Amino acid sequence: MTQHPNEGTCPFPHSSTPSAAPTPPLTRRHDQLSKTGASIELDERGVYRVHSFQAAREILRDEGVRQAGFMSEMASKMGAMKNAPVLFAEGDTHHAMRRDTARYFTPTSVATYQPMIAKLADELVAELSAKGEVNLDDLSLKLAVEVAAQVVGLTSSRLPGMEKRITSFVDGGGDSEPGSAQIRNRSQALSQQLNLGLFYFLDVKPAIEARKKERRDDLISHLLDKNYSDLEIMTECLTYGTAGMVTTREFISAAAWHLLQNADLRSEYLHGTEKERHAILHEILRLEPVVSTLYRRAEQDLEIDGVSVPKGSLLALNVQEANTDEATVGERPLEVCPARSLPRGVQAPVLAFGDGHHRCPGAFLAIRESDVFLRRLLIWNDLRIVTPPSVSYNEVVKGYELRGFRVALGKGAGQAASA
């Protein structure tokens, strides 16, 4: 690929000059960056660390690799399943599953969720208005869980609190690397089993029973039509639901953090068209990919960027580095530049939603719901950060967590945005 640098500026959509105060990455993991500058490095554990965009995209599009991260090892131990989870299936089986479920995530389908998302967003902003000060990460969790639950079909829970059951399961631990020999203690293992059981009996099982009586336009109804077992449906709920809920929660917080710190960017966002607003969100996501590392296992010998990778090897793709590869994204790769010019075939979030046949199916939905909520939140002129979030990392999701993000409204607040 030819070099495709920008022309020395990072303009906003309506501006010919760079931001007066460009915001650098807020969640970047410096301990995961390339140690030698090479596009692929073999570490002391035998893991191939991939840092460049070109090499990472080539691997993601290669049919000779399989998923190796995000609970794939756990899913493989959940008993014999006739239908493998879509996140971990490969080949023709995976392609067929993606075709069958694609309709739930098309722009047309997402548009039907718009009234529901808008109502939820209005309720959350009203909560902020009533309390005056809240944890933004709690509001973003409520939104992400409710939206994902509607799409998946997890709407018949026996008890409230599904968001806590999901986050406690994801927070329940996980190996620092797929296939590592790390052993969690007995209490951690029992805690995760308990959380999994509660999620099944309080959330998944009631949804299955309700849809056996009456089908709805959601993923669980579709899986019942395909004769999936309860175990298989629960596994899909974990992969589709949990992935969508957890990652969208974090992105909303990261985007709000950028927009509240950068007045110029916030103004451009609030006054932009939907296309321009989405471009800003995509650019923030490029800089702050929620999942910082994607894992693949080589199913055959590979040759990647001049490096021979033997069959069975683990590949760790550094998304944050690939997304800031200057050879692809141009100059000033560590700044938010919504009008950034990219080479043909490279999407605005670069690899933040993945690539190839396992690219995130809910990408458009995640951006749409984030936009609906953030517009309503940021229109309040006196909204301010009370306490910036602390940044930590989740070893199950392999991404950042933003917690304790306190925001507040002062007197004389503005008016909520219209739908």
TrEMBL record:
Q: Where is this region: Disordered?
A: 1-37
Ranges of Low complexity composition bias in the record: 11-20
**Which PROSITE patterns does the record match to this protein?**
CYTOCHROME_P450 (PS00086)
Show the SUPFAM superfamilies listed in the entry: Cytochrome P450 (SSF48264)
Specify the domain of life of the species encoding this protein.
Bacteria
MF annotations from Gene Ontology: heme binding; iron ion binding; monooxygenase activity; oxidoreductase activity, acting on paired donors, with incorporation or reduction of molecular oxygen
Identify the keywords attached in UniProt to this record, alphabetized: Heme, Iron, Metal-binding, Monooxygenase, Oxidoreductase, Plasmid
UniProt similarity note:
Belongs to the cytochrome P450 family.
Q: What is this protein called?
A: Cytochrome P450
Q: Which organism is it from?
A: Deinococcus psychrotolerans
